[in-house]
TrEMBL record:
Main location: cytoplasm
Binding site for Mg(2+): D12, G39
Keyword presence, Signal: no
Protein name: Adenylosuccinate synthetase
Gene Ontology BP terms: 'de novo' AMP biosynthetic process; IMP metabolic process
Gene: purA
Native organism: Methanimicrococcus hongohii
């Protein structure tokens, strides 16, 4: 079995918790794209873990792999490994591996990212982690890979070829090239390379061999589908492909191996940084979502923009990923609101449209059309059975299923691992929710 799990919105949908929850049923969890610009927060009892590079499956003892589609910050990775070991999480080459073909995020990538973001009049809102420049060097074939850190002569040969041009470019961008990459930093990278060499593994071979042996593999994406570098809200996107198909290229697994795809959907919408967010709320409801949902970035600590759930955007994510099931997260955050709303369509230039326009500039001009219903006041955190949920919250869940025609398999009602409701995807739905005429509830 080869399952791919991705975020269906702009990231921050709660993938860390859900991957941690599902990982016990899998032999391998593998990360297939992105860098340490992504962050997964997992709460286990009194412990909170924040991971940026290592798949959260490591917390339950599942083998965790980082594929060659990832761009790797060695300093972040070693900090995470040390953090896990200091907190009693067992990590060794038997249960953790990194593909040596993963590109390294170099200090000059981070410097160029910060300079670019500062200079732009219309800022994207990047994490300034050097991700774009690391991926650019991969495409230009000017990358340094993890495997290069295993060989001092090869590393310095590549570095000496690349560094003069990087220093020249940083100088032209207004930076100080003389402070770039002192020799001690190169020595630190080589030292980390030696520490990581034991973890090196051909991830494509490992996964394909495991699948042939009948093992189960969960491919974990970072960010969300609407941040995909091709299909997302350009230019306000990340620098990698975040959709399910990228799991095949990022890990080296043929598409015929994929058995199912899981999409994570927050019960409302958030995004970090700039770009279109049609349902954004700048009122007390938006404040409620932010504060109750603790909507602050794992990586940057930045406050996330919040709004009502966007069904047209979810339909696009379903097309992009081919989801076979959805997981609805943070339903509990809506508790206490007088009204719950869904964006069921847009108005653009006086016309109703049920699907996002192709161009981000047009999406920016879309006016959301809402269906609404009364809210609920009952706390959801202790509920473990779908039928114990308030009726209006069940209606909320079933309407998403019916209008999107994809079943919801889990509902998260709190940050803890056990604050999750497993749904029978074959259960009988309430016939009051009619997606054909789009009348809510």
């Amino acid at each position: 079995m080869f399952t791919v799990i991705t975020g269906a919105q702009f990231g921050d949908e709660g993938k860390g918790k859900i991957v941690d929850l599902l990982a016990e049923d899998y032999d391998i969890v593998a990360r297939f794209q992105g860098g340490d610009n992504a962050g997964h927060t997992v709460v286990i009892g009194e412990e909170t873990y924040k991971l940026h590079q290592i798949p959260s499956g490591i917390l339950v003892g599942t083998t965790a792999l980082v594929g060659p589609g990832v761009v790797l910050n060695p300093f972040t990775l070693t900090d995470e490994l040390n953090m896990l070991k200091s907190r009693g999480i067992f990590v060794d080459p038997e249960n953790f591996g990194i593909d040596p073909k993963a590109s390294i995020i170099m200090p000059y990538h981070i410097a160029m990212d910060a300079l670019t973001e500062t200079a732009q009049k219309e800022r994207i809102g990047t994490t300034r982690k050097g991700i774009a420049y690391a991926y650019s060097d991969r495409i230009l074939r000017n990358e340094i890979r993890l495997g290069d850190l295993f060989d001092e002569n090869r590393f310095y040969e590549k570095l000496n070829q690349l560094l003069p041009a990087k220093k020249d470019l940083i100088g032209k961008m207004g930076g100080n090239p003389y402070d770039l990459f002192p020799d001690e930093e190169a020595k630190r990278l080589l030292k980390i390379g030696k520490e990581l060499e034991d973890y090196a593994v051909d991830v494509s071979y490992e996964i394909n061999s495991s699948l042939r042996a009948g093992k189960k593999v969960l491919a974990e994406g970072a960010q969300g589908s609407m941040l995909d570098v091709i299909h997302g809200t350009q230019k306000y996107v990340t620098s990698s492909s975040t959709i399910a198909g990228s799991a095949c290229t990022g890990l080296g697994v043929g598409p015929s191996q994929v058995t199912n795809t899981i999409g994570l959907v927050k019960a409302y919408m958030t995004r970090v940084g700039n770009g279109p967010l049609p349902t954004e709320l700048n009122d007390e409801v938006g404040v409620h979502m932010c504060e109750v949902g603790h909507e602050y970035g794992t990586t940057t600590g930045r406050k996330r923009r919040c709004g009502w759930i966007d069904i047209p955007m979810l339909k696009k994510s379903i097309n992009l990923n081919g989801y076979t099931e959805l997981v609805l997260t943070k339903l509990d955050v809506l508790t206490g609101l007088e009204t719950t709303k869904m964006c069921v369509a847009y108005e653009l230039d006086g016309e109703r449209i049920d699907y996002p326009p192709a161009m981000s500039e047009d999406l920016e001009r879309c006016i959301p059309i809402y269906g609404d219903n009364e809210g609920w006041s009952e706390p959801l955190g202790d509920i473990r059975n779908f039928y114990d949920l308030p009726e209006v919250s069940r209606d909320f869940i079933e309407y998403i299923e019916k209008i999107c025609r994809v079943p919801i398999s889990y509902v998260s009602v709190g940050p803890e691992r056990d604050q999750t409701i497993k749904l029978d995807i074959n259960r009988q739905r309430d016939t009051r929710c009619n997606p054909i005429n789009r009348q809510l509830f």
